[in-house]
Amino acid sequence: MSRGIFNQHFYHFREMDNVVGIGRGNKIVRGSDTKQEALIILVRKKIKRNDLQRSSVIPPKMDGMITDVIEVGDICFHSDRKKIMRPAQPGISIGHYKVSAGTFGAVVYDRDTGAPLILSNNHVLANLTDGKDNRSLIGDSVIQPGFFDNSEGGNNVIGTLSKYIPIYRELNSPQCKYAKLFEDVLNKLIGMIKPQYRVQVLRNNEQANIVDCAVAVPNDPNGIISEVLEIGDILGTKDPKIGMTIKKSGRSSGVTQSIILATDVTIRVNVNKYESALFADQILAGPMSMPGDSGSVILSEDNYAVGLLFAGSESATMFNRIDNVLDTLNVRF
Length: 333
Fold this sequence. Notes:
The chain is mainly beta. The protein contains four helices and 20 strands.
C-alpha cells in the first residue's frame, strides 16, 4: 500500500472525533507483535465496541489490510518545561531561590481557607530543611523556573514558601546544651593546634520521615493553573497498589510511565555524599524519573493522584503516599 493511501484513509476517519491519526505498523495482540502489517488507527482513547455507535466502529480490514487501534491521547507540541511560564502549571521547573531546580507538582488548596497553593518537595521548595538549620525560612522566595534554568535572568519569583514538613537526617546536631558545650570546648582546644580543623558533635536519629513535601503561596492566584502539563486535571486520589500503572509529568523527563513494584517500603535515601535520611511507608516503582523531576505528582492511568515523587535512581523511583502528603500539609486537591 502506497504512502498516499494512508493520507487518504486519514481523511476517511477525520470526522470521527476520537481518531487523531493513521499509520502503517504491525498488528499487536495482547502485547505481542504478530509481524502482520496493519493499518494503524490512532485514537485519543480506546472505547469498548459495545459503547460505540455503529458508524464509529473500525472495520477489521480496509483495502485488504488488517487494522489495529492504538491509544495515544491528545498529541500536542512539547512545551519547554525549563522556561518561565505564566500562568505556571504542574510539570515545569520551580524551586526555592537557593535550590537548582525541581518540579511544580500540583495545585492544592488549604483545607481551612481554600487558598490555592503550589505543591512540591521540601527539598525543592524549602531547601531540604529540618526546621532548625536555617536552610530556609517561611516567606522565602520561590522562583519559576528554578535557579538552574533561569538563564534569561529577570524577576521570576512566583510565590513564597508557606509550609514545609521537616526532613530529619540519620545524623544531626544535638540541641542538648551539654553536647554544645562539649563541642565548643573541643574546638577551642583543637583551634590552638590546628585552627583549620573543627569538630562537630552529632547524634544518631532513628526518626523515620514519612513525607518530603512543602507548599508555597503564589503571588498571584491567577498566575497558576491546576492542569498538569501534557496530562490534564487531577481527578482525586487513589491508594497505590502493586502492579498499578502510573505516570508523571516532570521538569526533566516530561511524561513517563512505570508500574508500582512495592508498597510499605522503609529505605535509606542519600541526602548528599555524607548524609542520609530514613523514610518509611514509601512506594517503589520502576525507573521513570531523572534529577529535576522531584516534586512531580504520581498519577494513575485515569489521572488520580497516588503519590509525590521525591527520589530515585537509574533503576527505581521512590514516592510518598499522596494521602500522607495531603494530611500532613492540611491541603486537598
